Amino acid sequence: MAEDITRFNRKYESAMEESPLHPFELHNWIPISLGGLDISINKAVVIMWVVVSLVAVLMVMAGSARKLVPGKLQSMAEIIVDFIRGMIMDTIGKEGMRFFPLIATLFLFILFCNLIGLIPGSYTVTSQIVVTAVFACLVYGLSLVMGFFLHGVKFLGILVPPGSPAWLLPLMIPIELISQLARPISLAVRLFANMTAGHVILGVLFGLAISSGLLIGWLPFAFTIAMNGLEVGIAFIQAYIFTMLTCVYLGDAFHLHGHDEHAH
Amino acid sequence: MDSAAAALLGMGLAAAGFAGAGVGIGYIFGKMIEAVARQPEAEARVGKYMWIGFALVEAIALYGLVIAFIIMGLRK
Predict the structure, then answer these.
(1) Cys-Cys link to A162, which of A115, A157, A169, A257 (CB 3.0-4.6 A)?
(2) How close is the nearest chain B Cα to the Cα of A198, in Å?
(3) Cβ–Cβ under 8 Å, residues B66 and A193
(4) Sign of dihedral through CA atoms B47, B50, B52, B55?
């Protein structure tokens, strides 16, 4: 028994020496190359397919047999739809409802990616910065396109905070420009870093539990259970924050300087 | 100084940024409790903003972690 544990320790320590990030490495299962583009099938791609089909099946099942008195599945779907609608109405207003499909898709995809990643042996797709960066650039690009479409050149006024005196403008415009350009970066890094860090912390705690033996090892092991509970919460909060900020950025494009009457 | 040692020091310094996030999270929850104690019926609305603030503060701590990982990648 003790020998087994020490042998396992040695194996684990040699694995830990590589890098704490090594569980996040992806290996191609089916290498495919299309005109120089690498579109190989790997674990993340398969998990994304699983997430998409899971969300689609759940929501279609919940919506196909609607009743006046909803069952469990229909109640869940209604709560989600109500929640996202409330978020859009609070930040953008009624005219933002045409973005409901986009925002609901983003929320459900990110939420299910985060939650599926918590199952041991599975993979957190949102811990790849390329995934979150594509979402963030899409959202920010959409807000820019909507802003210029609705306001024309006047949308550049978003760089000038309302009520700032003219002599401050040479200072304010660069600051606002930087804060605008930081939006997609912070949106992408926030989700990616939260998901990565949570899993690294879990890995380190499991390492502690294994390497400190049975006598004291139950302590970090019990802590991993608490950490898992926190991670479930973080999965929800991060999906919420991402979609909330999406709504806020789109709302900025709709109402320049936030002069909206439905603020409450 | 050895460059490997300098990289380790840098990673440690990047992690020291967590102190600021600790102060921030304590402040957020403290103020939340204060607000709810003053006006218990506002709990649902204040709570929403509290969780947003909590996640934003936590994310800033994690930027430090990202910098530590970048240094680790550069170490070789």
Answers:
(1) A257
(2) 10
(3) yes
(4) negative
- Give pTM, 2 decimals: 0.81
| Calpha distance A209→A215 (Å, rounded) | 10
Instruction: Please list the alpha-helical segments (H only) found in B16-42.
Output: 18-38
Residue B69 predicted with pLDDT over 70: yes
- Is the Cβ pair B63, A189 closer than 8 Å? yes
How many residue pairs bridge chain A and chain B with CB atoms within 8 Å of each other?
Answer: 36
Distances from the Cα of B70 to the Cαs of A123, A184, A190, B5, B14, in angstroms? 22, 19, 16, 15, 10
Sign of CA dihedral A160, A166, A168, A170: positive
Tell me the pLDDT tens digit for each residue of A72-130.
888 888 999 999 999 898 888 888 888 999 999 999 999 999 999 888 888 889 988 89
Whether residues B63 and A237 touch (CB distance < 8 A) is answered with: no
Q: Does B4 lie at the interface with A, CB-CB under 8 angstroms? A: no
Are B62 and A190 in contact (CB < 8 Å)? yes
Summarize pLDDT for A170-228 with one digit per residue, the tens: 888 888 888 888 889 888 988 998 888 888 888 888 888 888 878 888 888 888 899 89
Nearest by CB: B59 against A19, A190, A244: A190
